[in-house]
Amino acid sequence: MYICKNCGYRSARWLGRCPSCGQWDTFVLESEEHEASASRVPRPVRISDMRPSAPAIRYASGIEEWDRVLGGGLVSGSLVILGGDPGIGKSTLALQVSAGTGRKVLYVAAEEAPSQVVERARRLGIGSANIHIVSEYSVDAVARLLEGEFFELVVVDSIQMMKVDANPSYPGSVSQVRDATLLLQEVARRKNIAFLIIGHVTKSGEIAGPRTMEHMVDVVLYLEGDRKTDLRILRAYKNRYGSTDEIGLFVMGERGLHPVEDPHRLFVSPGRGPRVGVARSVVMEGRRTIPLEVQALAVRTYYAAPMRNTTGYDVRRLNMLLAVLEKHARIRLRNHDIFVNIVGGLKVSDWAVDSAVLMAIVSAFRGFPLDPDAVFIGEVGLTGDILPAPSMEMRTKEAMRMGIKNIYANAEEGAFGGGGIKILKVTNIGELLSVCLE
Ligand code: TYD
Ligand code: MG
From atom 21 of ligand 1, which residue's Cα is the shortest distance away? Predict the structure, then answer.
């Protein structure tokens, strides 16, 4: 038997390239491999004697929402996966980013005809001479192309359509996606090329192919959004070169994805007067402040177990808030169905929105509108306490931009105020309810 020195794959005959790990010239007779490893002694090197690898180059695209999520742009020699539902806008974003970098780009179109890519580019107003298109589904052929000509950035659209020649299984299968990624990774590292790989997401919400693919790449991005609305959210789930807290906000328009500069208009419905079951907040997603509107509905239930339904807010978190309301404020909602909706389609991960959710529910339950010029900021603890929120200064600034007059939060009055905005300090839900509902 022959064995691959790299991954241990066994084959009855010698192979030039390992079908499992994609490495070239790694096959040796199993007996040789045993001999070699039996006598091999690894040699440690002092850190001070090692030369750092060549500094990575950042390819900023000038698309601020993209660059920020990546931590400054694509990095040479790395693999970035851009996942998302079919039709969400991955190819569009990849093309806009490619044009934005101004680098020498190879666009590997495995899914569409080059003419379709060109047509999309026209629609986006991209006439860049820096983007080269090739229609190809063989990873080996792409690797050979990159052996002969240098490109700074390579877009692969999509990984599910790519095929490694030595692997007999269908494109899109687990082993095919794994082998293709491994081969691309090897090329990326050796040639110092930045790869942007597009992957479709399965119904279960993962990039088709093995979960291990996410371990193999350096950055995992998802483009999310409801196809019924035009909001698109770019999120990093893994980022070897930056934080995973940042989000990018886009709107899909007639000519591609546009950055959202004024999130206020997206997430807060325009009507201003007092409304029952509506409360506003300012959340932080990474370094970004986002004004939000929470809507709640409370109706007497017809079921033995009342319904708890949320959009954009964790339903277990809602159950916790209802328990806190019952225990610490004696507001019992066990006979009511409760619905909570975060307007605009954002999934909130900043628990400082809790107090707004809580107030929207109480407002809906009591049929009592809240102060329309107020925002509620602060995580609600199991003890009924309202916790001080981080980044209050940035949130206050955003609230001012929204024209808010009162901020209910666990923060000192005057600390971040001024400019006509008032901070009303509340340390627990009892205090919050009494100042709002008095
Ligand atoms: P696409 O980038 O092809 O999605 P994916 O690669 O994720 O499958 O874009 C899909 C949708 O976006 C398509 O239905 C058309 C729409 N679209 C626009 O609304 N505006 C545009 O400028 C472009 C290029 C596409
Ligand atoms: Mg596409």
Answer: 256
